[in-house]
Amino acid sequence: MTAQTEETVAPDLLYSEAEDDLRAAVRSLLADRSDAPTVIARIESDTPYDPQLWRALGADIGTAGLLVPEKLGGQGAGHREAAVVLEELGRSVTPAPYLTSAVVATETLLALGSEDGPVAELLAELAAGRKVAVLAVPFSAAPEGSSAAEAVTGSLDGTVTAVADAAAADVLLVPTTDGLYAVETDAPGVTVEPLVALDRTRPLATVTLAAATGTCLAGTEAARSALRRGLLAGAGLLASEQLGLAEWCLTETVRYTRERHQFNRPIGSFQALKHRMAQLWLEVVSARAAARNAADALATGSPDTPLAVAVAQAYCSKVAVHAAEECIQLHGGIGMTWEHPAHLYLKRAKADAIAYGTAGSHREAIAELMELPAP
Amino acid sequence: MTAIDAPELRRRTRELLAAHPPATTGRTDFLRARFDAGLAWVHYPAGLGGLDAPRSLQPVVDAELAAAGAPDNDPRRIGIGLGMAAPTILGFGTDEQKRRFLRPLWVGEEVWCQLFSEPGAGSDLAALGTRAVREEADGDWIVDGQKVWTSSAHVARWAILIARTDPDLPKHRGISYFICDMTDPGVEVRPLRQITGEAEFNEVFLTGVRIPDSRRLGPVGAGWKVAQTTLMNERVSIGGSRIPREGGMIGPVARTWRERPELRTHDLHQRLLTLWVEAEVARLAGERLRQQLVAGQPGPEGSGMKLAFARLNQEISGLEVELLGEEGLLYSDWTMRRPDLVDFTGRDAGYRYLRSKGNSIEGGTSEVLLNIVAERVLGLPAEPRNDKDVAWKDLSR
Ligand SMILES: Cc1cc2nc3c(=O)[nH]c(=O)nc-3n(C[C@H](O)[C@H](O)[C@H](O)COP(=O)(O)OP(=O)(O)OC[C@H]3O[C@@H](n4cnc5c(N)ncnc54)[C@H](O)[C@@H]3O)c2cc1C
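That is the input. Now the predicted structure with flavin-adenine dinucleotide docked in place:
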């Protein structure tokens, strides 16, 4: 792609009726089963993930298989729908292996293009919400120039740190120097050691493989491009999670500042605060356009996808962090407490800003794609 | 009546082109014929330049005409008329007013200006003091006052004007809305030179200007409500067409970056990429707004886009001056001129930098727009105010 390339088809930046219906279903489930006190209680337990919630979300509503074609056991929907699910998961900071398993691992497997055999079998399990798989790469790995694959050698020996959702996974997708392997987490030689993470709603772990065995899913070249594809989808749809998160922060802040009185007025009537919230609203509106554009590009397989994803990530990470920081500041002392959910959002937003490439690394990708080179 | 769809519009456009071949028809004649065929603004009513068709179908006509090399009206030169006067006249005008004003406005034979701001009433527009007093004898209005920052007053044939018709009422309620003939005796236009060296706007002195009652727009005392329509249309710049990537101010900067490697520094690179992303996202947000309008689900996003573009224009043009280094120290021409239109393209970086400072002031300042977003979109409480139930004449000034 060069700077001269324009999008071929106009991106559809709105939500369809089916997407709105899906949102309503996911939102009502999460309102019931994943409210803030529940999430806070969960992250302090040994199992941040609620397996029953995951079954309801992934299997019963069928969100786990949105990206998977029907003939492989999925819903045959697409990235636009998965993006809506992520908006809701971001809005509720629900701990669930959706992004890592139903998007990144699933997309990586789909990129291998197998109609039968172990890849198709695993896809069917993931789509049905029966299994969780994660890519054994650091959560910070960017789609471009990810060297994670080199960490593990052909004999399946090695260590990968900061793997998101590994503790919840049944299967690890391990990129190695000679291909992509599927390794069961309970296989001999596999250890998953939980880490103390900044964002406890998305646990991280160190994965160690010591003469472990796995099923080879693809050779080096195919594995490399599938990995890139998986991470690209992850980065692109992460923008929707960031959007949902930012939206919650803004809505809550507006609600609180309308109710809280100081100086005999609602604090939301002070212009110094109003302008900050109006500015945030503008950022959220813009983030929605960027996130929708990335989801649509992924869904339609547009040649514009790498640019759309990089733009969405470079923009939306900043908006989510800004929204969470403003949420805490405008709540005053209560915003600093453990009981108030604001901190969950700040931690998620800050971790998301590093996930699948920082804004800076995405800007570098844009410099390359748009021929705006560094000096 | 058959519904007007894209093929039907294409058929009518071809009919117009056959009857008035652009190659042999004069510009004005062609534009008049286009208006009369209902192909000027297809979403306007039949007989008033439109066909009651969906607004989203306008590009069908435009593309067809562009392909045939037909002359266009000049939306930049007639921007105030097109963007503000026309929707207000359509919404509040009498049939006679609509018939009289819309055609020459659209064709560009008559340019409009906006006599709203006054030295004592800018952001607080409803505080205006220009008086319109009704004559017992014939019902005409006699207008006295001073307006300021009036863009294009020196080329305008007509003006939309708000004036106070009842000083005993609270400020928002005693205002009426008029169409003012800029060639009338008593209208005096004096250039105001601005930051760029040019005189794009003016002071306008109104002394005993006689306006017949038939040029009042909307009921007596309802001027503030009518003005809301004008202001809303001023702020919600409804881009009917898609903006291409790098279509705005970021375009010239990106081109310079590509063509002149000797100007590149690491600091400028970081800032350029950040602004490039923001410009691209603002373009997408504008596109999303356009799609919402076409789908008949207008969102409140419109009020935000002006804010975004004002800030971006200022930051990008500021970066451009720095990027140019030595050249950025120069300016093309400080001669005092009175331009017909504002043209950002085809001017140098210094001009863009200076002119874009007006983007966060004209058409409502960014501070005022943030207030509007906070109160009307987010529902935050209004500022306490002490001018709501006081007669205008009793307000302290
Ligand atoms: C290039 C240009 C072209 C223009 N063309 C026209 C035209 O054709 N016709 C026309 O009628 N007018 C025109 N204007 C006028 C424009 O609409 C006014 O300048 C504008 O509304 C601001 O009013 P003011 O200049 O009196 O500033 P003021 O209202 O005095 O504002 C001064 C500062 O105070 C801030 N401020 C004021 N009130 C508030 C508040 N409530 N909360 C927070 N901050 C506040 C403002 O944001 C600003 O920063 C033009 C202006 C420019 C710059």
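The CA atoms of residues 3 and 370 of chain A lie 4 Å apart.
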